[in-house]
Amino acid sequence: MGRYRGERPDQQITLSTRKNTDRFNISKVKESRKPLLSEEDLFNGIRNGNKAVLAQAITLVESSKKSHWERANTLVEKCLAAKTRSIRIGITGVPGVGKSTFIETLGKNLTDRGKKVVVLAVDPTSSRNKGSIMGDKTRMPELSKDARAFVRPSPSGDSLGGVARKTRETIILCEAAGYDIIMVETVGVGQSETAVHGMVDFFLLLKLAGAGDELQGIKRGIIEMADAIVINKADGDNLKRAKLAEVDFKRALQLYPPKENGWIPTVSSCSATENRGIHELWEIIEDYVAKAQKSGHFSIKRKIQNKEWLLQTIEERLKFDFYNHEAIKSQLEVFLSKVAENKISPFRAAEALLELQRRKSV
């Protein structure tokens, strides 16, 4: 019997999720009521490692209000000028692979070594009501309480594949706050892997053994992006299957050419719950970073990512300006109806709407 009389197990889960969501929403309301700091005060607070100020700054850069854009841009520029030596790690895997437990275990291992760790866990957002689970702090309770860690759940909004629209800016803020390791967790669906791969230094793919997708079901593109493949939950009755899957992946990777920087992706297994294989994985990441920095590929990759950041920002701004144009807002539904009834082709409708925007903007 649940905490509330007559409550079914599924109701307990719903109530628990609702409580977690409500708790996060309440904290967001409280945060929004705090007096807004100036960009200079925000920057100084970030540089001093003030988590509350960092949270407020992230809220500012995530804001979709046009009135906040200039302040957010000024703050990001200040933080960009702060020289940092961080490592950005992208982590992906299908739901149920154990990403949260893995990230928490890896994070705790790193904070125990004196590292400062950030987890930007991107929540799935409903396409219907734009709601978000926002449960990352409850999924990583120990890491969330760690003084050397900062866990930030962010709604994925409308960005490609469920990646938070302002994740790049958030990374910059966290680095300016002195965090050494930035981990970005993807929702594991759509094209979010591609988006996250374009903003990190090292890309990690988590897999499960015995899930029926060791080789056949995995997307070739993700294999090509991965710098390391880790078979998680290699413990108990699953240990033997995990070792077999590890061998299969190593054989499969032999068919792929080395990456541009000469790195050959590694395959290993671990148990996040038993804290086994995590230390060895971190050594792999450190080896990758050392070789990439020595060859110059590390800085080259970041410069390429900055260029992509610019192009993506232009696309987002153009999209925002289009859909918020008064003439478009008044005519879009009209053209959508015409297209639905085959009275006009989508191409002609798009041309008409774009021309309407151009004419009204002059």
Helix content: 40-55%
Rg over alpha carbons: 23 Å
Overall average pLDDT = 83
Spans with pLDDT under 50 lasting ≥5 residues? Answer: 1-17, 126-133
Strand content: 5-15%
Give the tally of β-strands.
7
End-to-end span in angstroms?
66 Å
CATH topology of the largest domain: Rossmann fold
Given the helix and strand composition, which structural class is it?
alpha/beta
What is the molecular shape? globular
- Largest sheet descriptor: 7 strands, parallel
CATH architecture of the largest domain: 3-Layer(aba) Sandwich
Classified in CATH, the superfamily of the largest domain is P-loop containing nucleotide triphosphate hydrolases
What's the CATH first level of the largest domain? Alpha Beta
Quaternary assembly? single chain
Tally of domains: 2
EC number: 3.6.5.-
Family: Belongs to the SIMIBI class G3E GTPase family. ArgK/MeaB subfamily.
InterPro entries: AAA+_ATPase, GTPase_ArgK, P-loop_NTPase
Pfam families: MeaB
Secondary structure layout plus pairing:
Layout: H1 9-33, H2 39-47, H3 51-62, H4 66-80, E1 87-92, H5 99-112, E2 117-123, H6 136-139, H7 141-145, E3 149-155, H8 167-176, E4 181-185, H9 192-197, E5 202-208, H10 220-225, E6 228-232, H11 239-253, E7 266-269, H12 278-295, H13 297-323, H14 326-340, H15 346-361
Parallel strand pairs: 1-4, 1-5, 2-3, 2-4, 5-6, 6-7
Helix pairs in contact: 2-3, 2-4, 3-8, 4-8, 14-15
